[in-house]
Amino acid sequence: MERIPILRMGEFLLVTIQVDMHDQLALTLQEDLAERIRKTSAKGVLIDISALEIVDSFIGRMISTIAGLSKIMDAQTVLVGMQPAVAITLVELGLSLPGVATALDAERGMSLLRRRLKLS
Amino acid sequence: MAVLHARTIDAVRKNEPALLARWSQNLEASGATRDARISPQEMSTQARDFLRLMVDASATADASDTGAREWADTRAFLENLSRTRALQGFDSQDTASFIFSLKRVLFETIQHAYADSPQDQAGQMWAVSELLDSLGMHTVRSFQKSREEIIARQQEDLLELSTPVVKLWEGVLALPMIGTLDSQRTQVVMESLLERIVETGSEIAIIDITGVPTVDTLVAQHLLKTVTAIRLMGADCIISGVRPQIAQTIVHLGLDLQGIVTKANLADALAVALQRLEFRVTKAA
Amino acid sequence: MMTVPGVTRESGSQEVVVEQDVVIARQTVRKLSTQCGMRLVDMTKFITAASELARNTVIYGGGGQMEWDVLENGTRKGLRLRFRDDGPGIADLKLAMSDGWTSGNGLGLGLSGAKRLVDQFDIETAPGQGTRITIVKWA
Q: Which of B8, B254, C49, C80 is such that its CA lies 20 to 30 A from the CA of A16?
């Protein structure tokens, strides 16, 4: 079964979504991430969607869910690289992903995670 | 249902050079070829291409239904012609007369081809007339649409020009908004601001509304949408130029600004932005 | 029934039964939207709306069809999509269309959201009579 790869970078997990996901793939990612956070006691999750041209309500909810799950397991989530057209569309759909921190790119996302880790 | 008979189509094809020459003469007589915007060669190429497309389509199609699939290539040619003419600044009359001046020439051809049967002659002339009228109308309509599109695009360009996104500092963009904020304007502006944020990697955008006369619920909603989109992308937004009257309106309307920082003027907003980005401004001596 | 200006130039349809079909639907809509010359933001909005409706067809409608038509109005091109299913239909349409623009978590059928993303939106549904949703966007 195809899966989205999850990379480990020290205390953080990095997920780069580059394919047009069907719902099951998204759910599998959610489960895989929860499991990896538990196994590695990761302190942060960085989700890179700079390659995604479409983010609909299902994927939007997946991202919120991942942020929620991570928080329960004591990890921070940062979403990076959202394309302008995607941002405009999500807003029009009525989704603002309130519980999700964001950054312009992976580099800044990592800085943000490190800063938050220092504070917590 | 009007069909161009095989005899008519043959007559046109066989006499193509003479036909094109007479059409060209008619166009010259009307002054169409003296216009510097289009060369005589271009004009005659267009004439020849159009004639061939029209004749080819007539061979298999109903001349009174130019919306049918068989006429798609002819329609597309005319749409292209209209668009080019519109871009070159011609008016709709010039563009349409290109088609209509072909009528007389075709009538003459039919007259010769059907000299022996007046009834068929009349029928074919009618069919050709209907056909060219319909294609002529299509050309005019396409021309109007092209003109409207050009104007719409010019308006968009103007909108973008009138709301330039300025880089104030490394990582800080400013968008001074002037005039009323309507839905279309906000969209164009929002898109260009978001693009610039990504292009420059700026983490803070300052939207200055000093030049915006009123802020009602609709305007506030537009601003809110813009800010939400900016945050989703990973940047943040400060709104500056919030005059006391606007602040009052916001309170009266019970608008929830959702934690957006607002400042009275651009300078204050810039100070906040620089602080957030951990810049410190000190005097040289 | 929705009336649109212009004529239909090209049409097609595809199944929307399993969730993979939602992905395929998105790809089809992308291809067609590009053909129509839609700008990036408009295309993104339209594909997203199609994704929402396709998913609804699979999940709530028990599977159905997506029919598409490329429209032409003078020199302007547009795209019309029709999602139809023979599922249970929507009982309370008003409720289903009611979530306004909020910063909430977008639960429910996402119909009002999809409506905001398109130029024209039409829905025919009744309990036991399936659902037919039509959306149009012009380039």
A: C49
How crowded is residue B107: how many other Cβ atoms within 10 Å of its Cβ?
Answer: 15
CB A83 within 8 A of CB A91: no
pTM of the model: 0.75
Among A87, A104, A109, whose Cβ lies nearest the Cβ of B229?
A87
Q: Which CATH number fits domain B6-159: 1.20.1250, 2.170.140, 3.40.1350, 1.10.490?
A: 1.10.490
* Domains delineated in chain C: 7-138 (3.30.565.10)
ipTM of the complex: 0.95
Residue B119: Cβ within 10 Å count: 8
- Looking at per-residue confidence, does A117 or B255 come out higher? A117
Residue A79 maps to which CATH number?
3.30.750.24
> What's chain B's Rg over C-alpha atoms?
31
pLDDT tens digits, residue range B230-281? 999 999 999 999 888 888 888 888 777 778 899 999 999 999 999 999 998 8
Domain extent listing, chain B? 6-159, 166-276
Nearest Cα neighbor of B5 from B105, B120, B116 is B120
**Nearest chain B CA: its distance from C100 CA (Å):** 12
What chain B residue is nearest to A60 in terms of C-alpha separation? B232
Question: Does the structural domain B166-276 have CATH classification 1.20.1290.10?
Answer: no
- State pLDDT tens for residues C83-104: 999 999 988 888 778 764 333 3
What digits encode the pLDDT tens for the residues B169-201?
999 999 988 777 777 777 888 889 999 999 999
Alpha carbon B240 to chain centroid, angstroms: 34
Q: How far is CA B170 from CA B235, B268, B278, C65, in A?
A: 13, 17, 12, 51
**What residue type is C71 in one-letter code?**
L
What is the distance in angstroms between the Cα of A60 and the nearest Cα belonging to chain C? Answer: 9
- Which DSSP state fits B18? H
| Of residues B277, B285, B8, the one with CA closest to residue B127 | B8
Residues of C in contact with B145 (CB under 8 A): 74-76
What backbone torsions phi and psi does residue A79 show, to the nearest 5 degrees? -100, 125
Give the Cβ contact number of residue B45 at 10 Å.
11
